Amino acid sequence: MTTNLRDRTGGDLIDVHAHYAPPIPDDKRPAILAEYRRGNFLSPPAEKWTPALAVEFMEAHGIRAQVLSNPNRLTVTAARRYNDFGAEVVASDPDRFGLLANLPLQEPVAALSEIDRAAEDLNADGFVLVTNYDGRYLGDPAFDDVFAALNERAATVFLHPVEPAGFSHLSCGRPGPVIEFPMDTARTVVDAIYAKVFLRYPRIKVIIAHAGGVLPVLATRVATTGMLGWVPNPNTVTSDEVRAQLAALYYDTALSAHPNSLLPLLETTTASHIVFGTDYPPAGDSVIETNMRLLSSTDILDDRELSAMATTATALFPRLAQSPGVAASPGGYGSGES
Known about the structure:
The structure is a single chain. This protein has 14 helices and ten strands. It is α/β, with parallel strands linked by helices and 338 residues long. The chain has one domain: Alpha-Beta Barrel (TIM Barrel). The radius of gyration is 19 Å and the shape is globular.
């Protein structure tokens, strides 16, 4: 069953939160299945992905293009292989797909090389980072050179959650997407805020998955309780800087069209910083359909604001603009947007 979201948006949606994967050799499947089971999954959330299936999904839902990512902690070799495959997909159908290149941040020096290779050789539209790398969150100074390189390119970066360190003690026996993914999103963004990452690298445009997870609900708590004298704050971040950094980020609607996500988000940023996302295919058809139905019927965002999600997305990913002048250039922190 299709939704009527296209009636409110003109069928010009850009899905910034869509995943891809290279074909899995048969001999690799048992190890991958075992890894899922260690993460409390009873089975993989998505059986397969192909460009043809993705286009079929887009056609059914009034989506013009998807910006593809594979948000996992990958080795340098695996990141290059995934990025090469993603670039081939985009090259075969550049009007329907964009690429967010994976950066192997466990090895920051190698990640610097992959930024250059992905941007210059693969024509990537942006980059994907995950919330932590072996328990190191994005405020870690080990990542500063990577952020400096992304800032120099004024890159668009998609931030997606993964399991936190200590997951076996935190998960309550459930897979990461149920509880810990939205929690880990808040952990890493707050860590970056205390490290002033978004202030020090203001040209990076950052999209946060799933409307920020629990981050909008915690925003005022961080800006108030988090600023008290008994809270470590070596960079002397102020309450106003917390609010400004959060407001300058972009947030997608994947799995997050219910009022309990949208209302706190709009207390944190403006509708002009919301972009459309589905989490296709791992979210599953029924969950995606429900979320799109909620988005199509919401009165929290009006028709103009829903339609503007495409304009915002093409400003972040200008190659996907339908025609010159469709998108205004979005800014990072300090651009005057809020």
